[in-house]
Amino acid sequence: MEVIGKKVRLPSPAASRIVEADDRFVVELERFQGPLDLLLHLIRSQDIDIFDIPIGDITEQFIKAIEGVEDSVSLERAGEFLEMAATLVRIKAQMLLPRRDDLLEDQDPRSELVRRLLEYEFFREMAHALSAAEAERALHRPKGYVEPRPSPDMGELPLQLSLEEFVAAAISLPAPPERKPHRAPVRPVTVDEKIDLWFRVLKEKTRVPFEWFMRRWKTRIHAVMSFLAALELAKRGKVRLNQERHFGTLWVNRGESDEDS
Amino acid sequence: MNPTRIVEAILLASETPLAPKEIARASTDLSTKDVEDAISELAREYEADDRAFQIYPLGDGYQILTRPEYAPYLERFDSITRTNKLSRAALETLAIIAYRQPVGRLQIEELRGVSAAGVLRNLQERGLIDIVGRAEGLGRPLLYGTNEKFLDHFGLRSLEDLPQPQELQIALRAEE
Amino acid sequence: MNPTRIVEAILLASETPLAPKEIARASTDLSTKDVEDAISELAREYEADDRAFQIYPLGDGYQILTRPEYAPYLERFDSITRTNKLSRAALETLAIIAYRQPVGRLQIEELRGVSAAGVLRNLQERGLIDIVGRAEGLGRPLLYGTNEKFLDHFGLRSLEDLPQPQELQIALRAEE
User: Fold this and answer.
1) For residue C134, which phi and psi values (nearest 5 degrees)?
2) Residues in chain B within 8 Å Cβ distance of A170
3) How far apart are CA A133 and CA A1, in angstroms?
4) pTM higher than 0.90, yes or no?
5) Which residues are bridge partners to B56 per DSSP?
6) pLDDT, tens digit, for every residue of C64-121?
7) How far is C162 from chain A, CA to nearest CA, in Å?
8) How far apart are CA B161 and CA A261, in angstroms?
9) Per residue in A163-176, pLDDT tens?
């Protein structure tokens, strides 16, 4: 007998690259299923060793790719991308920090992310295999017209159900499913906005602890953007960052030439 | 490709009877005459092979249908495959309706976390529930309740005789 | 009546794949074994006669379907419907459910890094997944699993027809 139910085959590795390595900084976010998909694209399209991700470069590329994310996708999806940006920045910061002696040598801050990426990649490949199986199955059509037949009168079928069974079913009804917790919409925030804020604050004070910024906004994305803004300003020489001791307060100091932006 | 086989595939897969002229559109190599010949050829084959189906003319089209002598088997098959027992989904839905009536579809779906449309139809066909009204508000959704047949089945005189065990979740308990 | 013909009539008149056990209910003289023999016999006949259709195994059941080589001829008929292709989000979510079932929404969201509520509702409406239980713990979240219709949609006999994770490791390494 001929069989549809052949084993599903995996796509060839080449076919599994969803997007070619076109200009990798111009990515249309809608093409990606989410932050993991985008991240995998950046890694695979540049032949980067997934077990040794250059987190600085990738973070920069990722943030560049999601610039203006709030305009191109829904707020909920934007939040998903921004959350990943926050994770990347955190990993990057952890890699920069000096290793504490009490931490194990193999505690690579990237390992959890790598595990998630490989796991996601597995299911992404599976989705490809399923898609091929779906297309093959769709070549077969069932009988289009099935003669209507008088349906047996259900009302006349004897019903086997005791009151005990009925009450038992009522008792076993679980409590209603959990409601999705309401997520406060994330107000989109940009690095530029934070840069302006640093300038304004540093007009009045010569130096500000980074935590002072963190305290004012509870959401992670504000912290991330503030941090990125501080890094950007340090790069441009507008501010100096210093830390008096490891794991101590990170100070943002007014730079020497801070006349304008 | 053999035109007779193309016609066979189309006749099987079509939801409506198709006229030879329409079938001929499947391929530029196919004339209406070819299709008519193919249909005659298929009818002869099905007859000679004693198939359980045949090609029947309907309006100006044709369709593959089972032969009438198999109708009793189909009927028996239908009535046996429908069971005398309620599915788990139907049973739970019936419980929600019995304890919360009058109740709308959305409330039932919220309590069970799944779509209730099919189950509600099934319970109505079995005659255990009725539409008892409409709610206020958007779209004025239908409200369901149990009926006489439901009470009769369990030998209850009224809904007040429905047991109210302690273990019933709050949403189903009678309001004090 | 010839049991092979009864089975043929029932298979032709069904909209969904049928298991031999179900088909056997059509007649008291029909055992599951008889039905299985009849299905093999019919498949041999359709093969020998070069019919445009064949009997295909899908999940636990069997269904008469057109052969793939006729698909191009069926495309231009409005009366022959095509099943809509699933979105990538739906396919990825189904892949996770197929391998990790029973699995809850939060696990799916963790794996894909995106919200799953809309996709899950969509897959449930298409009948490709079922709620198969509830997890322990806070809120007792719903757990999802694949069903017979899932197997049918992808032309699978069982979940074992899906690639094994080990096979994929090779694909992963090959790409590095």
Assistant:
1) -130, 145
2) 92, 95, 98-99, 165, 168, 172
3) 19
4) no
5) B63
6) 999 999 999 999 898 998 888 999 999 999 999 999 999 999 999 999 999 998 899 8
7) 5
8) 79
9) 888 888 887 776 66
